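Please, structure for the following, as tokens.
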Amino acid sequence: MNIISSIRNFSIIAHIDHGKSTLSDRLIQATHIISDRDFKDQILDSMDIERERGITIKSQTVCLPYIAKDGKTYHLNLIDTPGHVDFTYEVSRALASCEGALLLVDASQGVEAQTIANLYLAMEHNLEIIPIINKIDLPSADIEWVKNQIESDLGMDPDKIILASAKEGIGIQDVLEGVVTLLPPPTGDPDQRFEALIFDSHYDAYRGTIVHFRVFQGTIRTGDTIMFMFNNSRYKVEEVGIFQIKRVPQSHLSAGQVGYLIAGIKTVSDTRCGDTITHAHAPCNLPKPGFKLAKPVVFSSLYPIAADNYAELAEGLEKLQLNDASLVYEKDSSAALGFGFRCGFLGLLHLEVVQERLEREFDLSLILTAPSVQYQLVMKDGATQIIDNPALYPDPMSIQTTREPFIRATIIVPDRYMGVVMKLCLDRRGINTNYQYLSNNRLEMFFELPLSEVVYDFYDRLKSVTQGYGSFDYELIDFRETQIVKLDILINGERVDALSQLVHKDRSVERARLACEKLQEEIPKQMYKIAIQGAIGGTIIARTTVSAFRKDVTAKCYGGDISRKRKLLEKQKAGKKRMKMVGKVMIPQSAFLAVLKTDTD
């Protein structure tokens, strides 16, 4: 049996929390590539943040040697993918490296929004799909109901469904046999010109960039000179190999195989997820299709709490961008917070993950500004500007129209939650375009919503009002005319630029009041009153006050004339006024974060 016919490249796709990482664990255990002593749960989720949140953030790869029932040894390359809507681009690059996918559906939850979105993504790449019903051991499992859903909602053959429980290890052999018998082997010719797709990369302090790639044509060996087609940079290969939890060096990798290469790549921006690698002396004709630079939709500025840490933040972002192709950033500065970076993210979860990784992996303490989206401004002179930073918002008198991005949201819920979901979306300026019944009690609802209303806490609110049963997926559709104003926050009469936000005119008073109340809770008392105000231009639209510490200066007066007490109080008042004029309010980090977590319901 030639090597290419013994290879199977596959991915596991599912909604969040349907058991992808647990199934990966069982497949790894079943093929004995790691001893029981070294094994730990979620072994492919290498970051602490992935383990704590129970989500997969980075695509991981592992090569599983499996002896099938026909007695032959197969090499199964599992490319694990993230499940959250924010990481769709990573999923698409991983799927482009596969011939098949395991579609995992929870036996108690059924088909959810992200299940359908990932299925369509797999279909776009013409992958062979094996449906698997997971968690069949749960008391709430309803296998027949889920089978009907897979047949009616997804249009898949119910006879091909494999029943499994990754947690209990039920059906794992059936899954492995299904991968061997139902998924096709890769195509490609080891003797053609070398052509490979990068689907991930990570940084090693000693070896430089380690590139994860799938070979489509040709063969790569240690010592070859390679070229990245996006920017024509060239490197000499120091090591190639496969992943079996640890890196296992090989003499060469040929068509159909998945592995890694090390080539002393110190310029971290040279490797892009989705780029094509080829030989420098005999390049392939065209790069692999589908490569695009990821487009961020949510923007926020990151500043180090200590100004001395600016260089560490710059280095941390550079290394993190290598590991995360969708992170974009540029230099930024603030009068209140000093020098920092304006960063673009795929969504709010992506923002939180980047912040936590910078704080943990690079030992940084950071302040974030309120997240914003990109707005299109049509000026009175006919020019069009795109802004995502409140600091760059021009004079309102020079703006003719403002447009904001809209999304098409797909929400799947049990029909008993239809009313609360409708109210939540309409409160966020949503338009209900359509809804349909997927089964006798499950509803698929379609809304068109402004992205700016979704980036704050929409997903958390949806999970809350639907008691965890609501699932959500979205795609950007277009820009529509709107009324945007710049909301400034003044503390003690001074504008704090890091707290400025671009908000819809109708929501400005509510957003200003909530921001002021949150800041009032977080800013510590001083010896004088602190006024916290929300303003649009020169108009104050909300105010709260942090009351002062007050010493009882009249305590020593035992009666006597009232004028003595009044004189002492007037003296205290004048002292506080002097303090207020020279005093500077230190805003704690928690105050900036409190404004981010504004709960608008």
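Residues 562-582 form the longest helix (21 residues). Residues 42-54 have pLDDT under 50 and may be disordered.
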